[in-house]
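Re: Re: token formats

Sure, here are both.
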Amino acid sequence: MQYDGGGIIENWDDIRVFLAVARAESLSGAAPGLRMDPATLGRRIARLEERLGTALFVKSPQGYALTARGERLQAHAARAEAALALAGEAGGPDRGLSGQIRIGAPDGCANFILPQVCASIQAANPDLELQILALPRVVNLSKREADMAVTVSPPEAGRLTVQKITDYRLSLAQRADAPVPGGLSDLKRPLVGYIPDMIFDRELDYLGALGAKGVPLASNSVSVQLQMLRHAGIGIVHDFALPFAPELRRVLEHELRLTRAFWLVRHAADRRSARLTRFAAALAAGVRAEVARLEAECLTAARARRDG
């Protein structure tokens, strides 16, 4: 592989090490995925820089930041990595999906939707290794934190492809044994929701819909919020999460029902990957089906309580 910053790289393993450190921005962050210790990675990077006769990283206690020449090498290396992956797919047998795929997602989707969907896809493709990266923030695809991501709003920048997966509904919910409030202006139980200054997407800011000024019980995790509601308070919950907490019930449905959407975001270059395109189609279809199934289960339970 020729490098325009000066020098020639002949060993693909050097590129693999370089890309991992560049994406993790640290030796310790890259070490687990490469199954090497940070000291070994440091020596490998130093030898690579020596052979190329140029610094690829600025090292500091905060981590490894790419130099201008390092950024040029990363662009070339990423293209070479994608080309190798495509070549491997083209030469492989016509069979089920295989290899490792990592999906990034907000923790509501990651906890209540993706486990069932991924289990189903993997059962049909035994050679496939699926990883769910659950983060209370936007997944950084440009740094290859994941191969693709489910988001709650479409990104407005970057070389990405975006497709809408499905809408989903949210409702106000509390324990079934708590008194039902008379209206949104009569919410006597403590409000459960996101930590206001840690809301990473505008679609997750529900305070305006509630006319509330504060959140007495807050977390940056949807799963933690659900656990809080199982003990006390009232808050906005995904309808698809309610079947996992049968002691909760929706309230004030005539006053407050929210609709949001899930979007599937991928690297633009990955459109040429038949493997990732096949997986993305299966993932989107699975998420749509699972959201519909769980929301129908939530609706059935609500009707049963009313009729009972």
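Second one below.
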Amino acid sequence: MAGGRRLMARDGARPSYDPAGPDHALRAALQDLRTGRWMAMRTLLAETTPWWQWTQRTQVLAAAAAGTDVVRAWLTEEPDSAHAVVMHARVGVERALRARRERHRRTHELWIEAWDAAQTATVAAPRDPVPWVCLLALAQLDPEQRWEEHRAAAPEPMLPPGPWGLLAEADRRDPFNREAHHRMLQFLYARGGSGRLAEAAGYAQWAAGQAPPGSALHLLPLYVRVERYRRDSGHDAALDLHWVVEEADREARRALHSWFERTDPAERALPDLNHLAHALWGALKFADAARVFEAIGPYFTPPPWMYRTPDRDRAVEVFVQARDRCRAAAEGSRP
């Protein structure tokens, strides 16, 4: 089946967005969850051991469960389950962040509930990085940094105060945890202002510089570049040069060589693959981008492609055009 999907993708079929991507076990648990059942989720998480996979699966499951009472039913049935406690925190965080985006009147209440649930999870699962990732995610709801834990001194003098203690706790349990560092970026974005975006760029470069070969943190500068483009779209006539300047080219090549070529294909997150393909395509590195498109296969993620068109529903068309252009260039360069 996987080979058939890959063939379809190479033949030019439109890719699809699927939060589970190639993780078929996760997809099955999601389908079960959407019917109001939690046993498949419970079994899947019991079988999930690497922290990178645990972090990824709990995030995707929480996004699907946030509009339901499935996790609450699980926790009620098994109140001593550390996995259920962690998922309860995950769902609480997802609801609080959604409420903030929608400017819901219960945002503060949901925030406090999620914070309490995450604190409980740090006790129930003391070796798990995810409860600390949850607390980091909630930090973006405090852009004024009124909470003391959100204004700790940075480990580097050029970086701003922030939830560094929370990041350190996540890193202590899972060094270079991908989501933890993305949550830190989101906190820096939430502080607002063009100067603050420069802080985010500095942070991304610092984190990537600390990361070992194969770490997904090498892609952080690509995410910041997309965020800058998103904010400037429609206001800057020079945006076409945004992707081909020397710095953008260097960031794309560094991510290719330090991450894509040095990590296990099973550990590559779809958003990372899409951001790398997008960066290489924008930097006119078509042959290299074609390799990444091949790794993406029949799936895609709307960001970053949705920011390259005024009509965000046409993101998949931008993706397909970029993929086909890169494949054609790569095939034309072969002897």
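The first helix runs from residue 2 to 10. Confidence is low (pLDDT under 50) at residues 1-10.
- S.
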